[in-house]
Amino acid sequence: MLYGKINFLQLLLFLVVVQHSLFAQEFKLSDYLIEGEKDATLSVLTMLQDAAKHKNSKVIIEKGTYNFYPEKAYEQYCFVTNHDNGMRRIAFNIKNFDGLTIDAQGSTFIFHGVMMPFNIENSKNIDISGLNIDWFLPLHSEGLIEANDTTNHSFDLRLADNMPYTIRNEQLIFIKEGFEHDLNQAILFDPERKAVSYNTSKYTPLKMIDHIVIRNKDKFDYHNYIDFRRPEYETQDLEYAIKAKELEPGLVRISGLKGMPPPIGMVLVCKGQFGKARIANAFHINESSNVKLHDLNIYYAGGMGVIGERSQDITLDHVNILPNPEKKLMVSITADAAHFAGCKGKVVIDYCNFRNQLDDGLNVHGAFVIVEDILGPDKVGVRIGHFQQAGFQFAEKGDRVGIIDVDKSPEVAFQTTVNSLNKLNQDYYIITFDENITEKLNKGFILENLDWYPEVTITNSQFADNRARGLLLKSPKKTIIKNNYFSNMMQALIISGGINTWWYESGGAQDLLIEGNTFGDCSYDGRKRPVISIGGDEDYKGRQLGKIIIKNNTFNNFNPSILKAGGVNRLEFINNTINNSKTFPPTDFDAYVIDVKQVDTLNIKNVKISKDFVNKENIKAVKHNLSN
Amino acid sequence: MLYGKINFLQLLLFLVVVQHSLFAQEFKLSDYLIEGEKDATLSVLTMLQDAAKHKNSKVIIEKGTYNFYPEKAYEQYCFVTNHDNGMRRIAFNIKNFDGLTIDAQGSTFIFHGVMMPFNIENSKNIDISGLNIDWFLPLHSEGLIEANDTTNHSFDLRLADNMPYTIRNEQLIFIKEGFEHDLNQAILFDPERKAVSYNTSKYTPLKMIDHIVIRNKDKFDYHNYIDFRRPEYETQDLEYAIKAKELEPGLVRISGLKGMPPPIGMVLVCKGQFGKARIANAFHINESSNVKLHDLNIYYAGGMGVIGERSQDITLDHVNILPNPEKKLMVSITADAAHFAGCKGKVVIDYCNFRNQLDDGLNVHGAFVIVEDILGPDKVGVRIGHFQQAGFQFAEKGDRVGIIDVDKSPEVAFQTTVNSLNKLNQDYYIITFDENITEKLNKGFILENLDWYPEVTITNSQFADNRARGLLLKSPKKTIIKNNYFSNMMQALIISGGINTWWYESGGAQDLLIEGNTFGDCSYDGRKRPVISIGGDEDYKGRQLGKIIIKNNTFNNFNPSILKAGGVNRLEFINNTINNSKTFPPTDFDAYVIDVKQVDTLNIKNVKISKDFVNKENIKAVKHNLSN
C-alpha cells in the first residue's frame, strides 16, 4: 500500500508544503503602520516585502483611510502600454508573487501627486478587493463656463479651490503636485446629466493652437524613422493662439479661440498635452496570470483604471470606475476604464460600472509592429507603431506570429515562430525567427502576435457618460457582450479589423455575440456615428470579420443610426428593438437605422424600429441575405 | 617536481585560458558595417555584443567618419550623477566587460540628437583611444550680440543656420533634434579671446524671469520632504519677463530684460532650464574599475565629458575636451569636462586639455545623504541631497560610513559599517548597518561614505577659457596638482571641506600639493574671487582641512587676489611668483594678494609679488606662523 510507505521525512515535507501553500501566511497592515505617520506607503511596501517571501500570502488592510505619497514609494521605470512611459512611484509593488490576496475591507486609499497605486508584475494568482482608490487633488482640471462671448470668441471659466492654477505668460496653467498642464484635450460635461455634453464636438477640443515656422529646419538630419507625434516633436512648431486673463481669483477669461466658445453652464474638463497626461494609472497588470480584482471602486486615476498587457486570465468583478459620489467632479479617471493589450486566456468583466472617464470603457487588442530592417535570413529589426506602445512586450520565444504584406492585404500572408526578441530600445526590437523566412519580407511588412488574444466575456455591466466609446473589441477569440447597459458620447461598440496606421492595434473579431444589452443614447457629441460600428464601409481596408450575432437588444437612441457594418462573413441582427429616445434633437436624422455593406451572409430578423426613424435599412453588396 | 606533474588536461586548460585571456579576440568594425547604411549604431552594438563574449577583446575601428543616431541605439534608464537622469540612447554599450580595448585609429564619431556615446558599466580593464566625439548639431545655442539698447533693455541676436529656432508665444526657442531649450543659463563668450567674456556676470545669466502667483497653493499637501529645485517644481511660479521678436530670418530682438543688455560683439551662449539640459554626456563610467581613456578628443557633448561614479582607478591621458577647431562654436561641452563622484583607487589626469566647456574643469567629491527616518535599531531611511544625485550608489555592504551631527560639527562624529542599501526610489534609500546604532542618530544627521575617495594626480594639463572653475577637489586622499595651466572665469582651484547644503558634495582635502603650475587670469567674470579658494573665512562652517602645500607656482593675474584660505591645519605658500598680467582693468584692486584666516600652522616663504599689488597679506587667527 502506498500510504504505508510514507516515512517521517516525507510527512514533514508534506506538512511544510501544506503550511507554506494551503494555510496561507496572513499579514495585517496594522502590524506595520508607524505611529503618527500619515503616509502609509512605506508600511505597505514593507508588509508586501514580507508577504512576497511566502506563497499564497493573505494581506488584511483593516478598514480605514490611508494616504499614499510618492516620496517614499517604490520606483521603477514602467513601460505601460497606451500610457506615457516613465518612472512610476508605486504604492502596492506586487512583483514576483505566487499567490496573494489583498482584502482591504472597504478602506479608502488617497493618493497624492503622480503615483501608480498598483503594479502587478510577473505574478500569478492575485486577488484584490475591498478598496476605494481616490486622489487628494485631481491631476486633470475642471471649471464651469460662467460666461461667453461668441463675437470675440472668449469664455470665462470659474475654478474651484481644488484647482490651483496660475496665469503664465498669458496662458492658464493648472498646477498640480509635481505636475502641471494646460487647456489641451478639453471636453465639455453637462453637470445636469453628469455626462459628456450633447454636441461637445462643436466646441471641443478647444481650437487653441497656431502653427509657427522653425527657421533652418532643413538643417535637421532625420536619417531613421521618427514618430513625430511624440511630445518632444509634436509641439515644436506650435504656439498658443489663446490668451488667459484672470478677472478675479477663481475666474479666468480665455480669449482668442479659433472656434466657437463653449456654452454657459457646461463644465470644461481638460488634462493637457497628449503624450504627457497618462502618467498615473490605477492598476498595471503586466506579464502576470490569474488576476482578479473585485468589489472595489476606482474614483480617480491620472490614466487608465486597469491596464493589462502580456497577461493571462484577468477578471474584473464588481469593479466600479466612477467619480467619488462625495465629490463634485465630473470625471472619474482620465483615460480608458479598462484596457487589455496582448493578453490571452480569459478576460472577464462582470457586474462592473464604468462611468465618466475621459476615454473608452474597454479596449481589447494586440499590437502590430512594423518591419524596419532585414538583418539576416532569420532576423528583422522592427519598430513599434505608436509611441504609446513603446516598450510593449510584442512577443517572446515560441510565440506564433503572422506576417502581413499590408500593401496587398490586411490578412496574414504567412506565419512563423519567434525564436528571440531583443528590445534594443523601447521603439526598436530585434526579432529572430525559427526559420529563415526574411527573404519573403520587406520593409513595411507588419507582424502580428497570433497567440496572445483572449476570450472576452462582458456581462451585467454599465458603460456610460464617458468621453469616447463603450467597448472596442478586436480579439478574434470568442467574445460575449451580454446584459450590459451602454450610453457613450461616441459609439457604444466598435468592432474593427482595420490595420489602423495611427494606433497599430491588431486583431479582428471572428466570433462575437451581442445579446440582451440595453443601449441608451450614444454618439451624442454632435458627429455622425452609429451606436454600433462593425468593420467599415466601401473603403474599408481592414481584415474580414467572422461571425457576429446581435440579438435581443434594446436601443433607445435620439438618432436613427444604430448599426453600421461592413466586411463581415456572417452578420445576424435578430429580435432587436429600436426606440426613439427623443433625449436630444437629432444630429443625423436622415441616417439609416441599419446600414450594411460588404457582408457575405446577412440575417436581419424581428427588428422593431420606431416609426420616427424613416430610413430603416440600407443593404448593399451582400452575398447571402437571409433577412425576413 | 611540480612541473612534471602537469597532465594533459591541465595543459589543455592552460591553453584555453591563455587563448581566452592573453591572446585577445580581435573585432573590426568593418566586418559589421552594413553597406550603404549611414547609421553605424547597430553595427557597433552588434560588434560589442560579440566582443562581450570574450575576455580582453580588442576592437579596431578603422579610421573614418561614423554617424550615430538614437533610433537604433541601445537604451537604458541611467542614473548619471550631476546630470539629469533618464532614458539614454547609447552607442557604445560597454556593460559587464572583463577587458576591452577600443582603438578607433583617429576616427570621428558624429552623434545626432540626444545620445550618450559611451556607457561603461560594471566593467573592468577598459582602454579606449583614437577617436573624436562630435555632434551633428549642438544641443546648446550660440548667437552674436549684433546690437543692444541700454535704455530699453533689449539686444539683437544673430543666429547662424546651425541654430534652428522658432518664436513661440513671443519667446525665442532653440529647436534641436528631439530637444529644445530657451535662453536660460546664458553666458557671454568673447570671440576674440575665444573664452568666457570679461565681466560677463554683469549681464548673465539673463534676468529674464518674473515670479507669478499660484492660486489656491494652500491646497497642496506636501507631507514629506520635496526638493523644490526639481524642474517639475522649479518653474511652477515663474514666467518669462522677456519677449522675442524676429527682425529678419536669423536676427531676433530680445526685449524686456530686467538687467543690462549684453555688449555688442560678444557671443551669447545658452542651454536652457537647469535640470533639463544635462542629457547627453560623452562618457559615463559607472561601477567599473581600471578605465583608461587616452589620445582622444571630445569636441562636443550635451552634458559632461567624462563622468565617473562608484568606480576605481580611472586615467585620462591626452584627453582633449575643446571645441572642434574646424567649427566656429565657442563652447566644447555644456557641463564639467571631467567629474568623479564616489570613486576610489587612483584618478589620474595627465596631458589633458580641457577648454571652453560650460562648467568646471574637474570636480572630485563624494556625496552626503541625509537621515530622514529612523526605521529600526540598525535601519534608517535617507534622502539624497540634490536631485542631480538621485539614484547615486551611495554605499554597498561593507562600506565604512561616517555619521555627522551637522548642527554640532562638520566632522565625523562616529563611524559604522553598511550592511545593506535598498534604493526604494532614486531619492530615498533604506540603509541597514552592522550595528544597532540608530539611537545615536536623529533626523537631519548626515552620512558620508569614507571608503570611496580616490587619490588624485593632475599633471601637465590645461584648464582654461571655460565657465566656472578649474578644479574642485574634496578627496581627503593624497592629491597632487603639478605642472598645469589654469585660466578660468571663476577660481582656478576650490579646495573645500564645507557641508554644502545645496550640492551635498562631500569630502575635505587632507594632503594636497599644488606645485609648478602656471595660473593665467582667473575670476575675470566681474565678481570678487581669488585664484585659489581654500576652506573658508570666519563664518566657515566646513570641515578642518589638512596639509596643503602651494609651491613653485607662477600667477599672472589682472587682480591682486591670489589666495584666500581658512580652516586649515597646515598651509604652506612657498616660492611662488605673482605678476600683474594687466590683461583687464582690475575688478577687485584693493584685495589682499594673500588672505589667510583660521590656520593652525602657516608657512609663507619666498613669495614674489608684483609691486602693482599694494595689499599683500592679511593674516588672522593663525596659531603657528612660520612665515619669513
From TrEMBL, chains A, B:
<dbReference type="InterPro" id="IPR011050">
    <property type="entry name" value="Pectin_lyase_fold/virulence"/>
</dbReference>
<dbReference type="InterPro" id="IPR057275">
    <property type="entry name" value="Beta-barrel_GLAA-B_I"/>
</dbReference>
<feature type="domain" description="Right handed beta helix">
    <location>
        <begin position="456"/>
        <end position="582"/>
    </location>
</feature>
<dbReference type="GO" id="GO:0004557">
    <property type="term" value="F:alpha-galactosidase activity"/>
</dbReference>
<keyword id="KW-0677">Repeat</keyword>
<dbReference type="Pfam" id="PF23764">
    <property type="entry name" value="Beta-barrel_GLAA-B_II"/>
</dbReference>
<keyword id="KW-0732">Signal</keyword>
<feature type="domain" description="GLAA-B beta-barrel">
    <location>
        <begin position="141"/>
        <end position="268"/>
    </location>
</feature>
<dbReference type="Pfam" id="PF23763">
    <property type="entry name" value="Beta-barrel_GLAA-B_I"/>
</dbReference>
<dbReference type="InterPro" id="IPR012334">
    <property type="entry name" value="Pectin_lyas_fold"/>
</dbReference>
<dbReference type="InterPro" id="IPR039448">
    <property type="entry name" value="Beta_helix"/>
</dbReference>
<dbReference type="InterPro" id="IPR056441">
    <property type="entry name" value="Beta-barrel_GLAA-B_II"/>
</dbReference>
<keyword id="KW-0378">Hydrolase</keyword>
<feature type="domain" description="GLAA-B beta-barrel">
    <location>
        <begin position="379"/>
        <end position="444"/>
    </location>
</feature>
<dbReference type="Pfam" id="PF13229">
    <property type="entry name" value="Beta_helix"/>
</dbReference>
<protein>
    <submittedName>
        <fullName>Alpha-1,3-galactosidase A</fullName>
    </submittedName>
</protein>
<keyword id="KW-0326">Glycosidase</keyword>
